[in-house]
Task: structure prediction
Amino acid sequence: MNDLNKKAFGGLIFFILAVAALLFIPVWTLNYWRAWVFLVVLSISVFTITLYLAKNDPKLLERRVSAGSMAEKEKSQKIIQFVAQIAFILIFVISAIDHRFAWSLVPAYLSVFGDFLVVIGLLIVFFVFKENSFTSAIIEVNSKQKVISTGPYASVRHPMYIGAIIMLLGVPLALGSLWGELAVIFITLVIIWRLLDEERYLEKNLSGYKEYKIKVRYRLVPFIW
Result:
């Protein structure tokens, strides 16, 4: 295993362990079957995507391993990513606390549906990765980068973000929480903030992006916005 793969898979293991800590520490018990099922679903999904990238698109994998507010180059994105990280953490913490104190009564079939949304959201992200090898985890433009207008990019300008939102919507349900969806609303607003700032950056730095915006009118949801 080369250094890139070690870094990528090591980062994934740390991520899964961090999520597990955010779920089990607030409830102070391991008797939380919804969390276990969610962790299995999440782990299989992200490890499968990473395996695919390691084998088929190591350049994209390299672009994905450096993420977060500290990795961003633009000051505005550093702020946005910092807020997004807080919102992301809140999704798990609020959902776990909700479970502990039984604020929400979520039936098992809704939790299964939540896990399904997690898979569907990550599947959309996977198709975006297959279509666009320049989907860096940070806002930047590569010297060889070009505008992608095929596949999911033919319908909306930011298909990876809609995949992420669908996945995040499923997380609280998978964990048996309705209150956790409040944090999803918060992070969705942050994602919108991020993509608007990203579009300003791409218009300035990526040739052909202004024309692409005219061709593909919708940012996230076809015929809506």
Notes: DSSP finds eight helices and no strands in the chain. The longest helix spans residues 75-101.
